[in-house]
Amino acid sequence: MNFLEITEHERIATVRLNRPEKRNALSPALLTEIHDAFVSLGARQDISVIILEGNGKAFCAGADLEYLEHLSGFSIQENYQDSLHLKNAFHAVYTCPKPVIAKVHGPAIAGGCGLATVCDFVIAGESAIFGYSEVKIGFIPAIVMVYLLRKIGDTKSRRLLLSAENISAQEAETLGLITKCVPDGELQNAVDQLAQTLQNNSASSMALTKDMLANLHGMSLEVGLNYAASMNAFTRMTDDCKNGIQSFLKK
Predict the structure, then answer these.
(1) Are 32 and 70 in contact (CB under 8 A)?
(2) How far is it between the farthest Cα atoms of the chain?
(3) CB contact at 8 A, 6 and 42
(4) What is the pLDDT of residues 66-118, one digit of tens each?
(5) All structural domains of the chain with their residue ranges
(6) Is 188 exposed, middle or buried (0-12, 13-18, 19+ CB in 10 A)?
(7) Residue 80: helix, strand or coil by DSSP?
(8) What φ, ψ does residue 14 adopt, rounded to 5°?
(9) Rounded distance, CA 48 to CA 200, Å?
(10) What is the C-alpha separation between 119 and 85, in angstroms, rounded?
(11) Residue 22's closest CA among 54, 70, 69?
């Protein structure tokens, strides 16, 4: 990994964006590493939780400006393939079977805000800033819009995406964009406590729950309930469920 640092401690993996001189801007190479890291960590049985953070003064300030200069010369096919590159990286984070915590400090703007959006939890220091600035430069937040609508709904998404305004971490919590805003000095402790809480849960149950959360959107009530019943039945056959029931009954 050239642009990511990955460390592990007691079944918790920390993935650190490591382009501090570029405020961790999302270059094609970094997007590839994000995709590969989350696919790899997601498949490991010895990892239960993943923390995503940024090195330097920003979580992630969006797209790499130098790379954006090249886009105007791309053909429609080249631009489509480049868009798929971004989609694949975000989707690898969103569909990772492990719970993912974004630890956000400083700016999380445009693609950086999108990267936080696709995480399961977003814990931010009170000085963090969030915003989708794409329409300011004639671009559109197309891919992250799919996830944002699911997360906070139409009205709030329209406000953030069309105004392109930056908002504080406190307001982001109020809107439901992030999980929790904490004082900057308490950010690490808040993330560590959440990671420990998640680590105590069943890994298979969390993975199946994440799968359902991703799939239920768009289903009719009847289809959704039938899907839920089948998942319920499947979960009862897992070792984690059988062992958990036995442990509960022996209390």
Answers:
(1) no
(2) 67
(3) no
(4) 777 777 778 889 888 888 989 999 999 999 999 999 999 999 999 999 999 99
(5) 4-199, 203-249
(6) middle
(7) helix
(8) -110, 120
(9) 9
(10) 18
(11) 54
Cβ pair 32, 85 in contact under 8 A: yes
CA distance 89 to 29: 11
The type of residue at 102 is A
- Amino acid present at 43: A
Ramachandran class of 145: left when φ > 0, alpha when ψ lies in -120 to 50, beta otherwise: alpha
Q: Do residues 229 and 213 lie in contact, with contact meaning Cβ atoms separated by under 8 Å? A: no
Alpha carbon 240 to chain centroid, angstroms: 26
Q: Which residues are catalytic?
A: 134
Distance CA 93, CA 90 (A): 5
Kindly state the average pLDDT of the residues 181-210. 96
178 touches 116 (CB < 8 A)? yes
- pTM of model > 0.90: yes
Instruction: Give Cα separations from 7 to 50, 53, 216 (angstroms).
Output: 10, 12, 33
CA distance 239 to 41: 21
Asked if residues 241 and 235 have their Cβ atoms less than 8 Å apart, the reply is: yes
What's the CA gap between 60 and 66, in Å, rounded? 15
Alpha-carbon distances of 143 from 132, 149, 183, rounded to whole Å = 12, 11, 31
Is 247 buried (19+), middle (13-18) or exposed (0-12) by CB count in 10 A?
exposed
Contact 161, 148 (CB under 8 A): yes
State both tokens at 33.
């590493």
Asked if 156 contacts 175 with a C-beta cutoff of 8 angstroms, the reply is: yes
CATH architecture group of domain 4-199: Alpha-Beta Complex (3.90)
Which is it for the CA torsion 164, 167, 171, 174, positive or negative? positive
Query: Is the distance from CB of 52 to CB of 101 less than 8 angstroms?
Result: yes
